[in-house]
Amino acid sequence: MFIASLIAKPGQLDPALVDSLRNAFGGGVATWLSMDEAAEFPLEAIPANFEEVRASIAAQADLNIVPAEGRRKKMLLADMDSTMIQQECIDELAEEAGVGAHVKDITARAMNGELDFDGALTERVALLKGLPESVIDKVVAERITLMPGGKTLLATMHAHGGYCALVSGGFTAFTQRVSGLLGFDVNRANTLIIKDGELTGEVGRPILGREAKIQALKEFSAQQGITEADVLAVGDGANDLGMLGRAGMGVALHAKPSVQAQCDLRVNHGDLTALLYLQGYPRADHV
Asked: Do the domain assignments include residue 22?
């Protein structure tokens, strides 16, 4: 048994669309998790034309199909940049260093899988050499904003016994702050090397990239006594693909096109509360 999930921006999910899809797919009775925002209905099997239909309504809503069994996950494993926050921290630091455009280009290519992650990170951090350490606090205060729905996502999963881990290819100087603001149980990221109050242009080794995120999935699930199938992973970049592919529910959130193409579950319209709808939590149960 499967569940077909439809999620749109608040107030923009047309009931007529839900009914037409349910009829076309031969689905069961539709349930509204949030009126005019999120609905779902059961299916006996995944329709042969699912991808074609998904593409045809992509401008209106996110259509995903998930197994009905084991939908509610016991762990959230989340990327930070452009996932739990709306920015890429290294790009914001680069703006302060006067090399914003150059670094943003490298970041975009790395997240799209066009560049080696380790090499791209090393190259970008080198351009930050000489920035005062105080710039980190300035960037957090003035440039970083949380992705909508993050606090609700974590609070709801915690209320149902979930464990929440933040695993980033960014920097601990940011994950520690974001983790505290959102209530993550643990955070892991790369370390910016600082000496005499200034960034040295170097990053601590080994660099936390794609493989390290997979390792975190294995390690944290083992610590919690659960399987990888019990994990919901979310991210947007090529370095997230490993954990997204292995987790029981791997969601590409507002992801790069090349990343979406490799992920079964995609969210482009909703905010982070979409991850609760995918698990079957109605809005009335959101904390």
From this structure: yes
Domain membership of residue 133 (yes or no) is no
The verdict on whether 81 is a catalytic residue reads: yes
Cβ density class 147-166: b for 16+ within 10 Å, e for less: bebbbbbbebbbeeebbbbb
Catalytic residue among 79, 236, 240, 271: 79
* 118 included as an active-site residue: no
Query: Quick count: other Cβ atoms within 10 Å of Cβ 210?
Result: 18
**Residue 5 domain-assigned?**
yes
Q: Give the whole-angstrom CA distance, residue 125 versus residue 193.
A: 10
> Would you say 39 and 16 are in contact if contact means Cβ atoms under 8 Å apart?
no
The CATH number of residue 58's host domain is 3.30.70
Structural domains of the chain, count: 1
- Considering the candidates 14, 36, 62, 81, report the single residue annotated as catalytic: 81
Question: Is 51 a member of any domain?
Answer: yes
State the residue range of the domain holding 48: 1-69
The 10s digit of each residue's pLDDT in 182-237 is 999 999 999 999 999 999 999 999 888 889 999 999 999 999 999 999 999 999 99
| Contact predicate 6/65, CB 8 Å | no
